[in-house]
Amino acid sequence: MFFALSILFLTTRCFSSAGKIDHWSVGNIIITDPTIRFRLDIYSPTTPGSYPVLIYLPGLAGLVPTTFYTTMVTTIAEQNVILIGISKIENIKPEKISIHIATFLEWIIKPNDGATRLFAEHKAVKDVLPNMDRLGFLSHSSAAHSLGQYLNTTCGPLKLVIMMNPVDGIDPFGIVQDFITHPPTPLPFRTPTLIISAGLDNVSVGKKTPA
C-alpha cells in the first residue's frame, strides 16, 4: 500500500517522519439531504505544508467507524498523507452509497468548503493544506463495491484507488445478487488501482473486528 502511496504522491516526503499526527472527528456532516449524514474522522500531519489526501470508506460500506482502524490509518498519515475517513454513514441503502460518494467528493474538493474549511477551522492543523489535486480513495471489504459503482460512472477527481479485501456485492457471500464485476469483461475505469487481498492470518480477531 505504501508503495502505491509513494507513486501517487511522488513529490511528498514519503517514508520520512511526519511529526505529530492529529486526529479529530466531525460529526453529522450534511451536504444536501438532511436525512443523510456523514461522520468524518481525520488523521493529519501537523507540520505546516501541503499534503496529498486519501479518502477512506471502511468496511460494511461505511457503517464501521474509521476509528476501528486507528493503527492502520495513523500509520498512513505518518507517511505525510492526510486521511479523511467516512464513518457511520446513516440512512443510506447500500446500493445508493455510490451516489453519495459522488456528492461527497464534489463537496470535499470545493476551494472554500470541504477539506479546506475543515482544516481552516481546526487550530492544530491551521497551517496544513489539503492538496486536492492529489486525491486518492481507499476502501475496505464491501466498501469496494460502492466505490466500484462510482468508478463505473466517472473517475471524478481521484488519482489513485486502493481496495483492501474487496467484496463485490452487498454482502460477502453473494446472497444479494448485485455485482459489478463480470469476468473476463474488464471494468471501464482506468484510474490506477491497487487491490490488496490479505486473506486470513494468525492474528486473533477482536470482538469488534469489521467485516
TrEMBL record:
Residues 1-18 form the signal peptide. Pfam families: Chlorophyllase. SUPFAM superfamilies: alpha/beta-Hydrolases. Gene3D superfamilies: alpha/beta hydrolase. Keywords: Signal. The keyword Magnesium does not apply. PANTHER family: CARBOXYLESTERASE TYPE B DOMAIN-CONTAINING PROTEIN (PTHR33428:SF14), CHLOROPHYLLASE-2, CHLOROPLASTIC (PTHR33428). This is Chlorophyllase. It comes from Adineta steineri.
